[in-house]
Write a structure and sequence with these properties.
With 251 residues, the chain is α+β, with helices and mostly antiparallel strands. It is 33% helix and 25% strand.
């Protein structure tokens, strides 16, 4: 049955949960801040090619944390603006807790948590019920990409969630027609249509010579401009807007 954890038990339990993840690892927390131990464990998951999904809710983005996450190929980020929950799980264990993943919380705060183990008969339904809620949070979150600003090298979101909303995320790279009434789409919006991460789509556009890196930013090439793409200003700064016609290049 579910086990109650105090502060030290939560820290140890979280490290075990991450270490034991073989198929999937979900980190759900308002803050994108990690202790050194957690970063080492995430590096281990990267070498093991374990898919990691991080859902967060605060946009105070630390350049050190973002630089670390950007280096991890198997990590995908999602932003949920109303998120306040803290829940960590792999394919067999889940910890629901008040604890964040950075060192101050682990060393200075008095925290509480519950360990749920899927293989235990009394815990299985609790795990499944919580997983359904997590799946809902994920499906309603925004796929998140990021870049450094020119001025102060801080990370900002490359996201325009108002442009296109999708009830169900696609699992295959399978383009479908975009609504004719909307002329331009962010890379994030297109990535949702294609069912791949924004990071992978940026990479594809780079290989197609539509964009290139300049001073740590993505900028349009002459070919990209000729395709009809534009640089626009959004809530979080400049972003590249693609015409709906770009989808034909992926058919």
């Amino acid at each position: 049955m579910a086990k109650y954890l105090r502060t030290s038990g939560i820290s140890a339990g979280l490290e075990d949960l991450i270490r034991e993840a073989k198929e999937r690892l979900y980190i759900i927390s308002p803050y994108l801040k990690f202790s050194d131990n957690i970063k080492e464990l995430l590096n281990d998951k990267e070498r093991e090619k374990v898919e990691v999904r991080i859902i967060f809710g605060k946009q105070e983005l630390n350049p050190t944390e973002m630089g670390f996450l950007e280096s991890l190929k198997y990590v995908k980020l999602y932003f949920s603006k109303n998120l306040h929950a803290k829940c960590y799980l792999n394919e067999s264990k889940m910890i629901i807790t008040s604890m964040n993943l950075y060192e101050f919380s682990q060393q200075n705060n008095r925290e509480m948590g519950i360990l749920i183990e899927r293989h235990i008969e009394g815990d299985k339904q609790v795990y499944e019920d919580a997983w359904k809620d997590i799946d809902s949070i994920l499906n309603n979150a925004d796929d998140f990409a990021y870049a450094k600003t020119n001025k102060n090298q801080e990370y900002i979101p490359i996201s325009t969630p108002q442009i296109l909303h999708e009830e169900k995320k696609q699992t295959d790279f399978n383009p479908k027609p975009l609504p004719a009434e909307t002329k331009f789409y962010s890379t994030t919006a297109l990535s949702k249509e294609f069912g791949i991460s924004s990071k992978d789509l940026f990479s594809k556009f780079e290989k197609m010579n539509l964009i290139e890196r300049k001073n740590e930013d993505w900028v349009l090439t002459k070919k990209g401009i000729n395709k009809g793409a534009q640089t626009k200003k959004g809530q979080y700064g400049e972003y590249i807007a693609w015409p709906g016609s770009i989808i034909k290049d992926f058919k």
